[in-house]
Design brief:
The protein is mainly α. It has helices spanning 2-66, 122-130, 148-151, 159-179, 185-191, 202-208; strands at 93-98, 101-106, 135-137, 140-142. It has a two-stranded antiparallel ribbon with strand order 1-2.
């Protein structure tokens, strides 16, 4: 009888140990499943964050492209954004004619003409003539060919500064407009160079222009 009771006691203990081991395995499996779910959730969160950042970037790009002004990032960066014409005080309102476009701006915010000598780089001169950010007015890059719209007499903005610049600007105009007759820089320099392939200097080009 005693032996039978001991056997039963041992059997009960074994069952209890097996139950405990089974519970431990179940807990470990549950923890493993939780860790897997957390990993999957983390990946989803990272994917959503990347998607939102991409959309924000695309929205900013579209806004910049759809704006009416030319915010160029080369050379010098525009420091401001365009001002809506309706917030410009009437007494400060200026109108510049940029080709076929009327450009409204605040005359009190026009900076002095850039202190740049484009005669040192003819290729840059011809590029800046049509598309430039050297002068920024109302948050927009102004092509060199339109600088006179902001400084010539009658505009009422820093006319003394234009008096000092207009002769040099006029020479830039002669060269930039001559360059437009050629399909590319190579053709231009072929016309304005010697028989040895040496390109003419700024002054040599100006001296040749009346002959072309």
């Amino acid at each position: 009888m005693t032996i039978k009771l001991e056997i039963q006691h041992v059997h009960v203990q074994c069952c209890q140990h097996l139950k405990v081991d089974s519970n431990m395995l179940s807990v470990q499996e549950d923890l493993s499943n939780v860790e897997n779910h957390i990993s999957v959730l983390t990946l989803h969160i990272l994917d959503m964050k990347t998607l939102m950042e991409s959309k924000d970037s695309d929205t900013h790009t579209l806004h910049m492209e759809s704006s009416g002004c030319h915010n160029v990032q080369s050379h010098t960066q525009a420091k401001s954004v365009p001002l809506p014409p309706e917030i410009i005080p009437p007494e400060n309102l200026g109108i510049a004619h940029l080709g076929q476009e009327q450009f409204l701006y605040d005359r009190t915010t026009v900076p002095s003409p850039p202190t740049v000598h484009l005669s040192k780089d003819i290729n840059q001169l011809c590029e800046e003539w049509e598309k430039s950010n050297l002068l920024v007015v109302n948050g927009c890059g102004i092509p060199v060919k339109y600088w006179g719209e902001f400084y010539k007499k009658g505009k009422g903005v820093k006319t003394a500064a234009w008096d000092a610049l207009q002769v040099e600007w006029g020479n830039w105009k002669f060269i930039a407009e001559e360059r437009q007759w050629y399909p590319d820089n190579a053709s231009f320099w072929h016309a304005f160079g010697d028989e040895n392939g040496k390109v003419f200097s700024y002054q040599q080009i100006l001296n040749c222009l009346p002959e072309h």
